Amino acid sequence: MELFLECLSPSGSTALVYVWVYVGSKNNCATRNPNIIKFCVAQLNKRRAALKSSFQVSREYRKQKQSRSVSVAKRTPAPPQRRRPRPQAQTPAQRPVTMMSLLGRPDVDAGEVFTNFNQNITSLAVATSGGYSLYSLGSVDSTLDKIYHTKSDELFLIERLFESSLVAIVSQRAPRKLKVCHFKKQSEICNYSYANTILAVKLNRERLIVCLEESLYIHNIQDMKVVHTIRDTPCNPQGLCALSSSSDHCYLAYPGSVTAGEVQIFDAIHLHAKTMIPAHDTPLAALAFSPSGTEIATASERGTVIRVFSSQDGSRLFELRRGLKRCVSIVSLSFSTCAEYLVSSSNTETVHIFRLDRTATETADNHAGKQTSDDWMGFLGRTVTSYLPTQVTDVFSQGRAFASVTLPEAGVRRMCAIATIQKQLRLLIASQDGYLYVYSIPAVEGAECQLIKRHDLRLEDHYAMDIKGLNSGVSIGGAAGVPPSGASGAGGSGGGGGDAKAAPAADKPGGSYASAVKGDEPAGPSSSSSA
């Protein structure tokens, strides 16, 4: 018979010992034969002794190998480690400013020019590394008159209030501080500090809006107090928002979702939500109010369709198609001062002008209401349209560009506007590379706009206006080296003033501030005065 006997090995593991036993008969059983039992026990002892000796040999071999490796390590000592010197603490003036990585916005790249039009397209603000300048657009067809220029810290935001002397600026050195200045007197009226980086500033005659990544602050522009704060808004890293320039319809628009193109309309005077507009399927890329504030234009990140809605009830008024070939990033949307045209610029070299023909829309609606059964063409058109998908009918109903402009280079951020200059409509394109283009708008649909003038915003000596009296070396905010007054809370109703800290240059804005807000003072240059 065959037996497998299990025994414990010296290493602790079990071992199977094979034993073959011959059993001659039924009575000669292995369990009853003592000789067989003795033989099995002897074989097991031999196996156990062999396993134990092999285990001891292997253990001695491992010890010898380990001792040899230790001796070799002792003969070759490791090189001594050098201690790194402890970095010394830097003062705030010595710390490098990494403003570009903080913002991550394409309009504040190093070495570029920041341009911005005022609310009624009568002035252009230009900020460079050496300061900022203000230009008048009254005679832009021939010359570009410089109203003001000053040397200051490098700015990435500047907003002028209509033709007044009031400007709001944010510097790259202090991206969380908003300064409101009287540029004619070269004085700082007040400044506000916020918890995060300021991404956008909007102005009209009633409100000043400060946009952060996840909140919006609404200031009363008469006394600069925070009257309301919109907190926990969807993440808005680009600072996308729009403020109507009209005092009658003072609406604020901002994105309502991160994943979809929802527009939140907020009444900035009565401080309550007005409406929500589901404008696009993809997130928003651009917003713009009409001069009256009753209409708002929107564009998504896809950039193929631009829509115009009523800001009061959210109804869709126009749908404009920029193109079908490619998706682009729309940078700027702007209504003309007469609200008849809408211009858009993107990261491509093409600028599109759309005509908002409201009379044609009203005529078509009236004609559709008066159609009878005899008008078989209209009946056939309505019947065919009813069987087509909604996407197809939307494409047929979308308006095309009235005119376009092809610029020499793509990938440059450009701000566009349509203004009436000397009773003529002009397309103004201020590019980030430092040029202002002036185009005429054709009377025929589908034609190219003609270039009238190109101004170099980086030059300083080719303008007709003499501004030597303005460059007196006085910095914004008073004399150099004088710190601002202590910060204090700027409380207000509606949950305002939680994070904004005000440090006014005076106890309250005086008569010069009120006149600057109203625009009573002329916008031309004057002699400099201290703060």
TrEMBL record:
Domain of life: Eukaryota
Compositionally biased tracts (Gly residues): 488-499
Region (Disordered): 56-96, 482-531
Keywords assigned: Autophagy, Repeat, WD repeat
GO cellular component: cytoplasm
Similarity comment text for this entry: Belongs to the WD repeat PROPPIN family.
Name of the protein this chain belongs to: Uncharacterized protein, isoform A
Organism: Drosophila ananassae
